[in-house]
Amino acid sequence: MRKFFPVEDLARDERFNQITMNDRMADQRTVITTDSRPSRAANRIVPSRGDASDAARGLMHGIFVGEIQALEGAGRTCWDFTTGEEAPFELKLDMARQCWDEARHVEISVKLSDWMGSEIGEYAENTVLFQAACSNDPVLRLAGVNRALEGLAIDVFTTMKEFGEVAGDQYLEFAEDWMLADEVTHVKMGSDWLRKITEDDPERRKKALDFQSVVDKLFSYGGTRSESQESPIGLARRFRELAGFDDQEIDVIAKLSLAALEERKAAVLEAQAAHN
Amino acid sequence: MADAKKPRAPFAPWDRRELPGLFSVEESARRVGAYKWCELKLFEALGGWIATVPELDVKMRLGAHCYKHAWHAELWHKRLPELREMNPDRLTVAPNEHMVCFIEALTEPEAPELTIEKLVGVYRVFIPHFISAYTFHLNNTSDITDAPTMRSLRFILQDEFEDWRDGEMLIQSLIETPAEVDRAAAHQARLEKILLAAGGITGSGTIGFSTPEHEGAIA
Questions:
Q1: Where do the structural domains in chain A lie, given as residue ranges?
Q2: What span, in angstroms and rounded, lies between the C-alpha atoms of B217 and B206?
Q3: Percent above pLDDT 90 for chain B
Q4: For the residues of B168-180, what is the DSSP string, one character each?
Q5: Under an 8 A CB cutoff, do A83 and B40 touch?
């Protein structure tokens, strides 16, 4: 078995349809709509939204495939690096623990998707999460996956938990709350290891934090996640604090997300004007 | 009311634990070091394979089992200093070169159509050998002096038996043709021969029988 596994080779059965972030960004349907209704002032996934069921199902499928890739990424970190020389034994133990957690999250997501009325493969799988797990430096993986992506997972699960709470769906609320607890643990693992490994290597720490920033920005694409009600997913400040983010770090992500939202809105207007 | 002054035997009549055991401190530490090395190699392989198997149920099982073996490695890592090995890495080694060859052969399959080979290597060869080695250790060490090792062995054996059953059921559900039965058997035989040369996961004498005649048999 090779060290470092390319994203193109991720093994899937025939139900899955994989796309890259480039595919997604190139899809004009994401900005050009034939819907003549005025755009919503609030896009947050809440039961009062007209398309709430579809939006929640789509998000749940995104969570499902994201959990598969998180499982695969943590597993590859167990394999790709030589124990002791390239990655500490204890870090690998944490990654193995994350494998178990992510495997359970896949199981939970499958059951929740079924509960919500969708099927495996009903939506495309964006493989960008695993791409962030392909760095040849374990510290960058921790920054990109555990801090940025698992941080996003905290935001997503908080939004979905609140959705379940408001909708009176105790099944959804229960499961999301449990997954949220695991994600806080994973983000904290990332924060702790990042600080420990780069304690005497400020250059490596800066590189890792820069990489995290790139991944954060990538996942803020379109303002999908921000503190604005115009974003479908909120920013879960309290749980991020529990996971080891300080106020300044959360503020940076909040600003980044809002900027991405504004960029997206401008791009949509531009694309619509060109289309008309 | 019990008589507080009445002498009682230090060992109750039903307590049959014995003092002598088969292993010295050094031998116990050597075995524990080999256990840790093998569990480490196994959890690394299971983690690596997750991205390579297309079957969703297998993917998730590998994730769960990856953690269990990591936890076993951690238990052995913590036990080593208690056995006077203050540098656990020193004893975290393969018992011989054949065992290194075994791990190389075990982790060779990567292609998505080789799930049967991946599972056979783990659940029909490696884990049964863990069960043998751990059972031998459990049944032959001192109940009193080596009780902490025995406690870990019992926890770990419970996992191994559960994982063995999980893996065997997955293999049976994946094998659909006589040709696939042959594939599974051929891969099992290939790996078993390497382990025979290794003498088991702690080397010759893993389960009590020294097998010097086997060493190098297929080298």
A1: 50-275
A2: 17
A3: 81
A4: HHHHHHH--SHHH
A5: yes
Residue B66 to residue A92, Cβ atoms within 8 A: no
Is the pLDDT assigned to residue B192 strictly greater than 80?
yes
- Chain B CB within 8 Å of residue A102 CB: yes
Which domains can be identified in chain B, with CATH numbers? 25-198 (1.20.1260.10)
Reduced to 3 states (helix: H, G, I; strand: E, B; else coil), residue B11 is coil
CB-based contact, A39 to chain B, within 8 Å: no
What the block records as the tokens of A9 is: 């080779």
Q: Hey, is the C-beta of A100 within 8 angstroms of any chain B C-beta?
A: yes
Distances (CA, A) of B34 to B30, B59, B124, B203: 6, 27, 20, 9
Cβ atoms of residues B82 and B33 within 8 Å: no
Fold of A50-275: Ribonucleotide Reductase, subunit A (1.10.620)
pLDDT value, residue B28: 93
- The structure's pTM equals 0.89
Q: In terms of C-beta density within 10 A (0-12 exposed, 13-18 middle, 19 or more buried), how is residue A63 classed?
A: buried
User: Taking a contact as any Cβ pair under 8 Å apart, which residues of chain B between 45 and 104 contact chain A?
Assistant: 45-56, 59-64, 66-71, 73-74, 77, 89
Distance of residue A4 Cα from the nearest chain B Cα, in angstroms: 9
